[in-house]
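Late entry, evening session. Most of the bench is empty. Finally got around to the prediction I had been postponing all week. Sequence below, unchanged from the version circulated by S.P.
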Amino acid sequence: MSHQADAKRLLDDRGYSGTTIHDINPAHLLEKAVRDRITESYYWKEQCFAINEATLCDRASALTFYGGTYGSQKPTPFLCLILKLLQLLPEKGIVLEYLHQPHFKYLSALAAFYVRLTFEPKEVYTTLEPMLGDWRKLRRRTREGGWRLSYMDQFVDELLTKERVCATGLKKLPNRMVLEDLGQLEVRVSPLGEEIEGLDDDDDVQEVKAETDDEVVEVNGNSNGHREVDSRNGTESDDSN
């Protein structure tokens, strides 16, 4: 009963005086219908009771997929733990530790989603963009209840580019170029930049070689033509002239 009372206080705006995120009750970063389904779910009642930042790691390390709601709008454990994080509001250093630890990929995905929900736009970009080089496989629960293969970099790209992920409407993220123009972000250098430049250099070399080969063919053709004309005149041309 006390757990249910805590959940109701978290979800109730009336008299809320706790920490806010983006000027609202953190729990309200999830839509009301989703919050209601989470707090009514078995996983929330049995697995999210009386846990803290440390024991939440145990729950996240046991996850085998991510997603929003599925089937008859049933929330995934992943989404339940997102609401629990919004209730706990861990310090930024703890969130970054969740994000960068190498052992539990769904804990990293959980932290990435929390970063997108709660951090300021500049920090969202600087924190999540390095994960675009993370190619760990993830299993996603689809809305229809099936399964789909995904990857960490794909999931992070969705967080940076889409306004709805895992049954959750996300606060609109300013375009990166706007923040660059305002001087808040440095121009992003793609980790594939050197490889792309190398490919461009190879293409240039191939083009130059092709042009050279064409010139050689043309010269040879003209040379052969002169011999034929000279032979018809009964003489042979002298290539040295």
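Two things to note before I forget:
DSSP finds eleven helices and six strands in the chain.
The radius of gyration is 30 Å.
Will write this up properly tomorrow.
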